[in-house]
Design goal:
The chain has a single domain, classed as Up-down Bundle (Glutathione S-transferase Yfyf (Class Pi), Chain A, domain 2). The protein is 54% helix and 0% strand. The protein is built from nine helices and no strands. The two termini are 29 Å apart.
Amino acid sequence: MITLEEKKLQGYKHKLLSFEKGEHKSQDVLEINPRGQNQFKSQGIKLIPDSPAEQALMYQRMMEGLTLTDKLNSVIYYDLLIPEEERHDSAVKRNREGLATELNLWEGYLQKVAAGSYLAGGFSLADVIVFPNIAYAFRFGLSAGRYPKLAKYYSLLKDRPSIKASRPPHWLASPQGYDILKDL
């Protein structure tokens, strides 16, 4: 949705899906081609930079965003994903340490970019992919004090029109999330 908003393609049909109910695996969703090409390069903001160096950085950050997603999910959804008889405190500790290491890596990436900058220079697909993870982390209690660069990045993007238009409606209804990550 962020991409559609950035490309000025408002008016698209959208439906909130419940991952808990498995709606993301419905036949309607599976029929959609997730590998469609960008047919709107000249419309809205350019999401893939022209510079080969910026493109490389953008693709690198996009791919690394998958690791961030995995590490976040391993902490946030541990109790949901792991059967009770298979849960171990040592696994919880290892997952939390892995997420903290990953978040510190992103802090370092943001340390290297100019103040008020995005992940790969200008706003790009890297931000489209990574920002929802950062928003999710803060929704689940991530400390802005411990991760100030991530907090600045979150603040820079959270009021962007494309982000606001694609924010899950229940986040607006209950802006205070959870505290799973507060001590991380």
